[in-house]
Structures are given as structure tokens and as C-alpha cells.
User: Fold this.
Amino acid sequence: MIGLVYRIYENRLLKSVKRGTIPEHIAIIMDGNRRFARKKGLEPHQGHFFGSKKAEEVLEWCWELGVKMLTLYAFSTENFSRSETEKKNIFNLLERELKRILKDKRTYEREMRVKIVGRKDMLPENLLETVNKVEKATEMHRRHFLNIAIAYGGRQEIVDAVRSILRKVEKGEISPGEIDKKIIDEHLYGDGKYSKVDLIIRTGGEQRLSNFLPWQAANSIAYFCDVYWPEFRKIDLLRAIRSWQFRRRQEVV
Assistant:
């Protein structure tokens, strides 16, 4: 009975959301994996396995809804302070998921470009090798964009962008007077619509952005929900988009 009520509610919510504008770029802070594991009596690092399966599911929901770009916060620069066991587990999961994406026919049918945003030089060699393969295989795709933030820090991204611009200034490729918002946008880790985020979702109950996309999120709308990431449901995504649609209409008025 509960399952039937849930499906009816989900269908009604889906119809409501589809009548409105769909955000082009959604970014998600996938928080709560370790707390989910503890709740289930598992080792904290085991929660990341369930989190990776949820990411795969949410990717499908977003493409079905017509979202053009999805950015997932997988591993921050601060996360390097975690235990070796947990880091190894996360990197192995990331490598496995990237290999799955590389072999998945839907990646090519949907023309999904995959890009890792972050300090790639900090990644283990085997993971970096897989990163390079999936980026190379999808670099010409332009219909959908999946960014995975690994070894990512928002302030560091801005620092790296500034350094890259200064190198071009030194070479005479850019004059100081030409530096504007567009130039900075072009030197961030991602490309396409990456420089502007419409909706940021954070799971796990925390109400902060944790150094995630500070430049891109300047005019975005944030939605915080209490559920742990592995328990994130389609109705949670739909509620987030509905909230974005409502607040967007208010801003227009």
C-alpha cells in the first residue's frame, strides 16, 4: 500500500515538474555515505559503495528529465586527510565506475561527455589512467555533460584559473585589460555550461556548500535535504527541482 501511494505521488510530482523549466546544470554534494553505513551497522567506508550505486541511478533520472549537465562532488582535497583504507576504497570505486561508464553503450548513445574536475595530479596513477581514457573517449560528445569533482577544492580552482590566465598574460596571449568574468569562466576546470550552476543539492542534513563550486554558484539556488545520499529518492530530486522552479518564478516577479 505504501509503495502504491509513493508511486502515485511520484507520478504527480513528475508531471508537475515537467510542466515547468528544467534546470540545465545541477550540482550535487553527495553527503551522508558514512553515516548511512553506521546506521546499517557497517564499516563507515562501506557506505561509499551504496553511494556510488545511487549516483548511477540519479544520473539516469537527470537525463530522463532533460538536465543537460550534472556535477557530482565525489572527493574533496580535504578528504585526503581520511584513513588510507577509506581513500583506497573510494578511489577503487571511482575507477570501477569510470570503467563502467567507458563501456556503457548509453554513454555513446546519449553523447555524454565525462570530465573530471579537480587536481588530477593528486590522484593515484591507476585512477588517473582510467580518467584519461574516459575523457578521451567522450571528448567530442556535446549532448550531455557529466562532471565528477575528484580532489576538488573550490578556492583552489579559482587560484588555478588565475595562475593559468597569468601564464597567458606573460606570453602575451591575453592583456590584463581583457581579463573579465568570461575569461575566468573559460579557465575553470570544466567547460560548456560548467561555469554556471542553476541548482545545488546537498543531502545528509548539512546546510553549507563546503567549498563546492563557489564561483559557479554565485547566482544559483541551493536545496538541502535531510536524507543520507544512499537513501536519496526520485521524489527528493523532483522536490528539489520544484523548489528551484518556485523560487525562480519569485525572482522573476
About this structure: The first helix runs from residue 2 to 18. The chain has a mean pLDDT of 95.
